[in-house]
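User: I'm putting together notes for a lab meeting next week and I want to include a structural view of one of the chains we've been expressing. I don't have a solved structure, so I'd like a prediction I can at least talk through. The sequence is below, exactly as it appears in our construct file.
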Amino acid sequence: MAEGSEVYYFDLRLVHDHFDKALVQDDDIDIKAYLDAYNELYKFFHLMGSVFSFVSSDLKQKIDILAEFLNRDDQNYKTSKIMIEYETKNKLLFRGHYINGARTLLRLHRGLEFIREFLWQLSELSDTDKTSMCCQDAYNKTLAKHHPWVVRKAAIVAMYSMPTKRLLFQKVCGLDVQRNVDILPKMLEVTAEVLNRTYNLFDLYQLHNLP
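Assistant: Thanks for the context. Below is the predicted structure for the 211-residue chain, given as structure tokens.
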């Protein structure tokens, strides 16, 4: 919740704005803006504490890996399409233990599917509804498909302790709950477009099953 004495909260408007900026021409995605949005989403998991520890550390690692690729070679990692074309051309996608950008983006894509599904189901709840069931359902529809049984079991058990919608938003958004609730529908819309573009790109290059 804090780095030193600094307290920060989750801001859905920033997520919306960064993802909106990420939607560039030719159905492509700007990686810098994508990572800016994802870093804000990471705050959500971090602020939830141990409930989402099964996914937060992994996502943070993937964000950092992709950011390092971008910092090292911004020309070939500027957008998702440029990155995949570059790694395909240079045969980097199936090179032993080499950590490539495409595989890293695929893992983040799967995490984003879960986040969006959970927030969409959350938007349908009343303030006093518990969030555990919709979180479990969102997880089972998305990330659970890619996790071993031990991780799935631990995640589902951890979700039983989740609070009501109102308390959850207060925990992660601080005093700006209504601001976040108001922008949620638009955030879900732009996130769906990011997901669709990413999915279509991996479909085009047949990379959904990258090892």
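A couple of points you could mention at the meeting. The first helix runs from residue 12 to 22. The chain is about 65% helix and 5% strand.

User: Perfect, that's what I needed.
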